[in-house]
Write a structure and sequence with these properties.
The chain is built from ten helices and no strands. Helix 6 packs antiparallel against helix 10. It is elongated, with a radius of gyration of 20 Å. By secondary structure, the chain is mainly α. It folds into two domains: about 55 residues, Homeodomain-like (Arc Repressor Mutant, subunit A), CATH 1.10.10.60; about 120 residues, Tetracycline Repressor, domain 2 (Orthogonal Bundle), CATH 1.10.357.
Amino acid sequence: MLVSDEHKSEAGSRQGRGRGRPRNAEVDRAVLAAAVDLLAEHGFGQLTVEAVASRAGVGRPTVYRRWPTKEDLAVHALIHSVPPLTAPDTGDAVGDLCELAVGFVTELSNSPLGSVVLGVHAECGRRPELGNPLREHYLQPRDAVITDLVERGRREGAIRPDIPADTVRDLVFGPLIYRWLITGEPVDRATAELLVSTARRAVAPGER
């Protein structure tokens, strides 16, 4: 069904291209879901556009029209599947930052999607064609949310003014990411809260 619907959609797009007809969102979702499934099953190294197209029930040209390379496809599969960081606002910016870190890492590390995130990140050092779009489209928007929280914490007087925002980010998120990505130890909520509370004391005014 997806193939025939897509052919109709693509044909309509060619006939009405001047009208800026949108592409088929159902096909987008099917392709991205197939990419995530295959990344989880085989890793980025074994990912092929042909396999994704077959799993999604579409032709290869359909995939290439949307994502010209498998690197683009993998990054957008992550964007589609991993929930964005959404900053809470309880009036305690540092508490919100810590809760954001604990919730995000514990949920992702205990989800099947976590292996996909691990695998794609592991390839970045060897593949700049993957690392660059991952940083631009996946990591930078998340960094922006964290930076906004840090700056809010400064305005509240809860974060030392001499610590750069990216250092605060690393102190709060870093121990959780290290435990998850490097040691492979479980990241349960109690452990995560302990690690983050230590970071919170380090960035508080008066701590040196």
